[in-house]
Design a protein that fits this description.
Elements (H helix, E strand, L loop, with lengths): L9 H9 L8 H14 L4 H14 L5 H5 L3 H8 L8 H15 L7 H7 L19 H12 L7 H10 L17
Length: 181
């Protein structure tokens, strides 16, 4: 058994089985997930999954220090890159978020912020309808990130990131990966 959304394509199945809901460590890896969740806003996640290799190349592996230095030349290159989502606001937000990440005070990290807003585990969802689009914790995380200068980090994006990076376990109760996530 798998979460029903994972059965829609081989790409979804691989993402579900190998990555979704598993802990992600390190600010660069978390920055990538935050960026991709921001690019996904208003689009299907399958679009992002299929463009992920191009995103990784275009954003230089999502190294925050490198992305924070992107200027007009890199922005023009990104806007001309058919392999990624060419949304200027999302591109600028990604560059801005790299700067915001690097500006966090010493000892703080994206992982710390996520951990501070991790919800208490609840009962396993039984159906997809039991999974919320956002939670009080994701609203608080969104506000916290925005207060620290991050953009394109609404509560739905924040919750999707929490799910994708293992801060929330939303595998359904009968999913084979529920206990292994």
């Amino acid at each position: 058994m798998r979460c029903p959304w994972a059965l829609a394509s081989a790409d979804y199945l691989a993402y579900h089985d190998d990555e979704w809901g598993r802990p992600v460590r390190g600010d660069a890896a978390l920055f990538e997930r935050l960026s991709l969740e921001g690019f996904q806003a208003g689009l299907s996640w399958i679009t992002i999954l299929r463009k992920r290799p191009a995103f990784r190349e275009a954003f230089r592996g999502f190294d925050p220090e490198t992305v924070a230095r992107f200027g007009d030349t890199e922005i023009a290159q990104l806007m001309a890159n058919p392999g990624i989502i060419r949304n200027r606001a999302k591109i600028l937000a990604t560059i801005n978020n790299a700067k915001a990440l690097l500006a966090l005070p010493g000892g703080e990290s994206l992982a710390n912020l996520l951990e501070l807003h991790r919800p208490q585990p609840g009962p396993a969802p039984r159906t997809s309808e039991d999974i919320p689009a956002s939670t009080p914790e994701s609203h608080k995380l969104s506000r916290e990130l925005r207060a620290r200068g991050f953009r394109f980090v609404g509560p739905v994006t924040a919750y999707a990131m929490m799910q994708a990076t293992g801060y929330v376990n939303d595998h359904l109760a009968d999913c084979a990966l529920r206990d292994g996530a």
